[in-house]
Amino acid sequence: MSQTQRLLLIAPPAMTRTPAFDRAAALARAMQLPVHIVAFDYSQALAVAGLFDPEQFALARDGYLQAHRQWLADQAGLMSKHGVEVTSEVVWVQHPFEEILSFIKEMPLTLIIKDAQEESAFKRVFFTPLDWQLLRDCSVPVHLVTTPLNARPRNVLAIIDVLRDEDQDHVFNDQIIDAATKLAAVCDASLELLHVYDWTVVYAQDMGFGALPLATGLYEMLGTAQHEAFAAIAERHGVPPERRHFMEGAPVPSICEFVSEHDIDVIVMGTVQNKGLSKLLGTTAEQLLHRAPCSVLAIKPGKMLQS
Predict the structure, then answer these.
(1) pTM value surpassing 0.90
(2) Which residues are listed as membrane-spanning (predicted)?
């Protein structure tokens, strides 16, 4: 297997061209990287039928896989016309996440790109079990695409948390900003940096320990300290003042409102697995991912987006 860095596009099982195809093609051109497209096929009903007639099962499966391979090859051909080096394959597998882990071991991947799966027309809950596995346990940055607009992102938003109180967490903020900066640079997009100060969380934590509510003045001091920390990290990364946004309020509604007002195409954020829990960093990240106000690029601690 080639050791060239590449993008991995996970195509949907249905033979339908989705926004992730256009996003992968645009990023491949911008980053000058090849793309490998993989689709995972499996039919439980067909597998059960195969127990009674293995020969017919094999014929039906192979016929479908061949049709899917040809369809992916046609999509790869469309990308190739725009100067993108593309390979593709279809894999018959019941549990695709394990297969994705094999891809990660076999080839150097810069980014995994996949459509986020819409499950509700009323509440934008996009994430399927495979999406959550990728966000929680995948070592490679994961880009979940939610909109067909702007194949090449025009506006990128980095979200950081200056409440991180350990050295490694401070480094994680740097990694998030670095990834967002690289994405914006290769796409010739604008970069915005955002931190939302939620003083109610500090208040709730204080009350949870059974102490008296902190004085209003102390909350203001904490907010000032966070603002100064935010300004310092923005200065360190060369983010101009007009691109720095320090907001007070409930994080998820504030972020969603910001995304809408600034026509953000991609949120770059950090995700980690809480110790002993099978969920993502805090309720803010979890709720934000559920609501998916735009496409998401999730970065893990220690994992950089290659440029």
Answers:
(1) no
(2) none
